[in-house]
């Protein structure tokens, strides 16, 4: 595992070539932030199975990121391969539609990464080709004081358009009833687990069976950058800035963790590139 250190924080990142047991078919292998640890307060992030030390790869922990649209999935039959950006070649073993990695966990060829280590920055690069798709993906994770930045650059170097649909899945510990407040504000549809309270915070309903979890899609201002004030039991608050136009927002939690999931989406024509980032201020 790779580590970055500054201002009492240690950021632990998975190494794509060495931490394979923790890498499934879901999360991008490069720049996978496994944990952020405060020298005085301990581990600051959780996961769906936390504190299990080796959670199932699909569940993971920390601050993982997902390229949701698999290349070639629209035409792949059972037994064919697709390409999950940042992960690699995945065998389609389920006929469930639409294709999703929760039903298809067999990674038959992993994307390769080069890793550059700097004092407070790690840069991972992957050149990926599949069925006429060609792309360069760069993941840069940097720690400046107590601000952790996760930046992605995806360049389409081939002749086929690339459908880019990505989201972050940050896992935070519960800090009581209040979860987070978002700017711009959001609204929630009827659901059994969450509501927006009078202070503008998303709050969890104590009576819900949280072992079953709860997933909801808030009504949010799309096309704008999202900022979140996330409640935290040890720090009081973690500030998160999404440096991209929001394409969708989801919210999920269980009895171990809560996670807001911001989406970035666009179609990259040949020669196009997209750069986006998340900033976590601890």
Short description:
This protein has strands at about 1-5, 10-15, 35-40, 40-45, 65, 80-85, 90, 105-110, 115, 120-130, 135-145, 145-155, 160-170, 180-185, 195, 200-205, 215, 225-230, 235-245, 250-255, 260-270, 275-280. By secondary structure, it is mainly β.
Structural account:
The chain is built from no helices and 22 strands. By secondary structure, it is mainly β. The protein has a domain at 178-273. It has a ten-stranded antiparallel β-sheet, with no helix packed on it. Strands 5-13-21-20-17 form a five-stranded antiparallel β-sheet, with no helix packed on it. A hairpin with a 3-residue loop joins strand 6 (81-84) and strand 7. 39% of the residues are buried. The model has no long low-confidence stretch (mean pLDDT 98).
Question: What order do the helices and strands come in, and which of them pair?
Answer:
Elements (H helix, E strand, L loop, with lengths): L1 E5 L2 E5 L19 E6 L3 E2 L21 E3 L13 E4 L3 E4 L15 E4 L3 E4 L3 E10 L2 E12 L2 E10 L5 E7 L9 E6 L10 E3 L5 E3 L9 E3 L10 E6 L3 E8 L4 E6 L4 E11 L4 E9 L1
Antiparallel strand pairs: 1-2, 2-3, 3-4, 5-13, 6-7, 7-8, 9-10, 10-11, 11-12, 12-22, 13-21, 14-16, 14-18, 15-16, 17-20, 18-19, 19-22, 20-21
Helix % is under 10%
Secondary-structure element sequence?
Answer: EEEEEEEEEEEEEEEEEEEEEE
What shape does the CA trace take?
A: globular
Helical run tally: 0
User: End-to-end distance, in Å?
Assistant: 21 Å
Residue runs with pLDDT of under 50 for 5 or more positions: none
Overall mean pLDDT stands at 98
Roughly what fraction of the amino acids lie in strands? over 45%
- Rg from Cα: 18 Å
Which structural class best describes the helix and strand composition? mainly beta
The strand count comes to 22
Largest sheet entry: 10 strands, antiparallel
């Amino acid at each position: 595992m790779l580590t970055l250190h500054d201002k009492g924080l240690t950021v632990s990142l998975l190494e794509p070539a060495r931490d394979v047991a923790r890498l499934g078919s879901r999360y991008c292998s490069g720049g996978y932030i496994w944990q952020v640890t405060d020298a005085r307060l301990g581990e600051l992030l959780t996961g769906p199975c936390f504190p299990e030390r080796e959670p199932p790869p699909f569940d993971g922990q920390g601050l993982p990121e997902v390229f949701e649209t698999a290349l070639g999935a629209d035409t792949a039959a059972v037994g064919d391969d697709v390409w999950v950006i940042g992960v690699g070649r995945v065998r389609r073993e389920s006929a469930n539609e639409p294709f999703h990695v929760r039903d298809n966990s067999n990674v038959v060829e992993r994307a390769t990464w080069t890793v550059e280590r700097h004092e407070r920055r790690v840069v991972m690069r992957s050149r990926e080709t599949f069925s006429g798709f060609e792309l360069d993906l760069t993941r840069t994770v940097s720690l400046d004081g107590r601000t952790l930045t996760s930046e992605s650059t995806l360049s389409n170097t081939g002749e086929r358009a690339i459908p880019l649909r990505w989201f972050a899945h940050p896992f935070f510990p519960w800090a009581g009833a209040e979860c987070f407040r978002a700017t711009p504000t959001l609204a929630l549809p009827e659901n059994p687990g969450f509501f927006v309270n009078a202070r503008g915070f998303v709050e969890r309903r104590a009576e819900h069976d949280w072992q079953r979890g709860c997933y909801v899609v808030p009504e949010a201002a799309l096309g704008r950058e999202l900022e979140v004030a996330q409640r935290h039991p040890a720090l009081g608050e973690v500030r998160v800035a999404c440096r991209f136009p929001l394409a969708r927002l989801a919210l999920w939690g269980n009895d171990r963790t809560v996670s807001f999931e911001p989406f970035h989406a666009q179609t990259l024509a040949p020669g196009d590139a997209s750069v986006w980032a998340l900033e976590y201020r601890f």
